[in-house]
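Fold it.
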Amino acid sequence: MASKKHQRQENIERLKTEVFDVLVIGGGITGAGIAWDAAMRNLKVALIDKGDFGAGTSSGSSKLVHAGIRYLAYGEFKLVHIASLERQWLFRACPHQTAPIPFIIPNYKKGKNSFLKLIFAGAMYDLLANFKNTENHAFLNKKETLALVPNLKKEPLKRALYYWDGIMDDARVTLETVLSAQELGAVVANYVKAISFQIDSHPKKGEIVKGVEVENVFTGERFIVQAKVVVNATGPWTDTLLQQFADQRKLLRTTKGIHIITKRLVKSDVVVVITADDKRGMFVIPFRKKYSLIGTTDTDFTGNLDHVEVTKEDIDYVLSAINNDLPGAVTKNDVLSAYSGVRPLLLSPKAKSESATSRSFKILSTRANLLTITGGKFTIFRHMAEKTVDKIIKLLSLKKKDFRCKTKKAVLHGGTGITNLADYLKTHVPEIMKKFDLPFDIADHLVRTYGTAHQHILTILQEDEKMKERLADNRPYILAEIRHAIEKEMCYTVSDFLLRRTQLQLLENQGLDCLSKVADVMATILNWDKEEKTQQIEDYKNNLVWLPGRDD
């Protein structure tokens, strides 16, 4: 592990000593996308996050690649159009972590989703995608709908709108974007916290941000990162970061979304849109072959952004929604895990509810040389990054024609050369099974999860055959993934591994069945002493936002 520790320390030393064109604060998908785009335009880039990359909203989403059919009801046609094009780009750019999938919206005789509304929504969804979605929409009659989802409420079901969006592993798409930026020369470091802005006075521009005082969270050491432009891409923490200035204006409406994981509720590979008691639409999403992911809620949130609990009321709300349209599908005992996230939505006095708040974004010049990007949605992160870096280029007094955006035709880390994932799997999975004597589920998992980067895990297996051991029974995850995550993916805590490098925290037992094993391996590689290992285990348990059987 010495080499990787040296690599992180080398990055820290570079942050201390170099002057960057742009420093991005916030390693969620928005900040990661900005760092990647800027690095691709040959700018000198630094990216920091006070926690792990994607540890906030970007690992707490519904894990959907979607244009947002419901936004049509709020007249967000431009947003849906942009998201439709970005959705198709993301399928191409990260083929191992995204996939198209059909959705259905049931139409009931007296339900929220009238036939006329669905006709309009389906037609507009195709039109705004320039008719380049995976497939155009269609309508299924009652018999066809029930053939696809037999446990759907049968009366008074009339038909269903059938259309296409997609699914993804949000945390790993974020990570692949960070790794893409790093490959292009960006200096990236997680667990580096922004403490305060370094300010100079200018006779014409007033206060000018020239850098940021930061803290290495692991050591407590503080130092200055110098940058010509600083970007605040901290998501729900945007207002908190800006409170360091006298300007106390509030930019965000932060809303909480929770999701639950259950056994597989719908056998078909289709996302079912269900309706909660308050008429809010929710999704029942296929997850990891054996499970369903259901969500999300949308309620105003003003609590601790670093630990967003899932309450009994949250769980009851989601369960009620499921059982409205899939009668008797689940009870509280069927909930395997839950997770939460906070959306950084633009504050809009006109929005009558949390769900009606716009998912558009703004890029603000909060101070001279300080840009703040707020709002937006995961699927349009590349577009948001392009617009932000265009502004950075202008602030640096560079000519845009010499620094044009190149991400539209680019592919993210792990996806290079994969034009068809099914073909890539057919080529590599059988040879891995044969060469390394691995069962199908492990070989398939390694290639699907890491794309072309799976080759490093094979190198680890060549060096140490014991690394083939499963982390837990009946799971495809193996010990070699821990070493790979540390050496190649900047994984430094047990939570980094169990929630964001893998999604074991979201499955049965929430990773507790392999917690000690993961901690043992990480302790060996990272040279933790007994006290540190014990603390890592306790921190992981304490950071769980929901526990089965909890009454509060």
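Residues 421-543 form a domain with the Helicase, Ruva Protein; domain 3 fold (CATH 1.10.8.870).
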